[in-house]
Amino acid sequence: MRGIDQSYQFRDYPMNEEEWVMYGDYAIPALGWEPNRKLLKELNENYNLGFTNPEYYVTDVETAKANFINGKTYEYSDYIAANIDWLNSFYAQNPDAKLAIAVQATEADTEYGTVPASRSDNPFGMMIGFSSQASEDEIKAAMMYMEWMLQEENLFVMQWGFEGDNFNYGEDGLPVSVNYADYAGDHKQGFSNNKDYWCVAIEARNAGTIEDVIKAATPQGIPQDFSAELIQHYYNKVAAAEKGWIITDCMFATQLPSIEEYQGDLLAMYAEARDDLIMCKPEEFDAKYDEWAQKYADAGYKAIADERLQAMKDGLTSAMQQ
Fold it and tell me: Contact, 146 vs 200, CB < 8 A?
């Protein structure tokens, strides 16, 4: 997504806690922070070496999918699900093709990155918020929906569907989804096995061991089975987390008015700066980066960083994991 960058692999670990508070949240990219400079510098080099689609900035999601399906690009990334429409289309178009998954690295895999780090999922699951204009009845209805979804029998049907239509039981007694593309009846599930409906209750379909859970989420009904790679990805990520490289962003227990005031303009500015910095000549990068960083700070990012730091000093933030 243009305008959103995660610089975790370019940070030093253990992180400085004040920097973690001020700059660690990727929702507002930290233009001006050294890890962000290193990230964009690598993207600049990739662009100038021809590894990046030269029209990436005007290529929408559906075009990017079509380019991958038709062999015009060598990679595409998306969330893993039991049924992925573009992946089904890829194999239909290229029945003899072989794909590979980029598995979580165990060592640094980039010229600038210090470690194969990334952002941890929130420890409390999905964040759910209500509009300030929502009525008491509307909030009550939403809470009742979540309570209904947490009931085991309801959650199972929402996640797996109906036996014979959406899934069958395997020899181990666990449900196995049928290929989404092969069923078009009344019980056809929504995207990613109805996840948009049940994600208020849990992050993944839960059935059996962690290996079983991953296998259930692996794309089904395609020529290749990626479950072994995805299971290895999980354990590699666990190992990275144990080394302190998979971190949770800082949480704030107070309002930060500067974010509401400046975030929209900063995201628009960052998208413009990012394209300029990626597509410029390598010898121009550092000077351009410093210029954009100053503009960004003056446009409100310094105010946000200062307000976040003050919240930490006031004891109104989470603490960095040790």
Answer: yes
